């Protein structure tokens, strides 16, 4: 299936290094065993296998940072997150506390058990060099984008372009107008807000800490996020 080890993330930008991981653990996680605690640098990728029953907490360290997110069954990556199945099952295009992230088989992969923001996008997709040049001009085609992050990180686990599906955009604000038009506007998050997902089976998580600078999804300034994997203390 690919690698099953963890990684230490680094800042893939040319700017200053990401701030070190804060010492404080979100209050909700107090008393839980910390399995992993890493900071994903601005614009960087990340991946990890989260064991069944463990929880993944994503902390928006500086606020207004979109986190593009893909999800696979760790034992069989042909079973992967499905936006249509997730949206259909819950009857809502947004994710919030209690939402179940479903696979293309209809099975539960992860559940959003705690959310301090209130709404997350399932339909805005991932930025790419191609979409950047189409939307914002050919001068942006060289800019690093989420699809490139997913391809680079997915390759570590034996995944390729055909394995990329419609992704979740945590913290991203994509309102749907009455006429069906979509917008990408200022986010709803703030520094230090977090969300927590419980793994319903062993899952492989791929993340692109969105590098987009041409629309407000990151406040035109990509920033680091913190990833914590925890489990019930023994």
UniProtKB/TrEMBL annotation:
Residues 39-204 form the DUF1989 domain. Residues 1-28 are annotated as: Disordered. InterPro entries: DUF1989, UAAP2. Transmembrane segments: none annotated. Residues 1-14 have a biased composition (Low complexity). It comes from the Bacteria. It holds the Pfam family DUF1989. This is Urea carboxylase-associated protein 1. It comes from Cryobacterium arcticum.
